[in-house]
């Protein structure tokens, strides 16, 4: 639960090549040097331990694919501060390029820690939003950053499937969905839609009895 409290969440507006977008935004500080965090983001051996296995041409302009269907192009890579990629899911997504992008920015703090910012932008017409709201991607990123925190701290990682089966993991998911609901409300979301989206997101990530 401390990991949920460590992050600041917001929903905002942006633009993508395909049109107007909404954003889910995560900001937090990691107790690790910036080069270590950058390596965890870009070293395939470490990336697979907190995100998913990755293949492809891992260079600016190169294409990548994660072992889960997410794929895209590396748009910008400025070590050790900025990584931006297009982010598509499923074989049919290539018909709609420019509809989803992820950007991660790092900055060293005066204390030697690393300020971390992740912004995931998706076009407003993205089909999951009406049902799940920003939690559609936000809960997933919270789970992945939980694994990243463990990797940076002690080299261990969390199994997301097992997390969803444990009482503590289900509570993490429930609170993450609720936190994204609060961000949705703060961005002007209609309360009934937000409540329904939080419930749907919780059921998606932690199906079955509470």
Automatic annotation (TrEMBL):
One Pfam family per UniProt: AHSA1
InterPro entries cross-referenced by the UniProt entry: ASHA1/2-like_C, START-like_dom_sf
Record domain Activator of Hsp90 ATPase homologue 1/2-like C-terminal: where: 32-152
Family: Belongs to the AHA1 family.
Protein name (record): Activator of Hsp90 ATPase homologue 1/2-like C-terminal domain-containing protein
Native organism: Amycolatopsis panacis
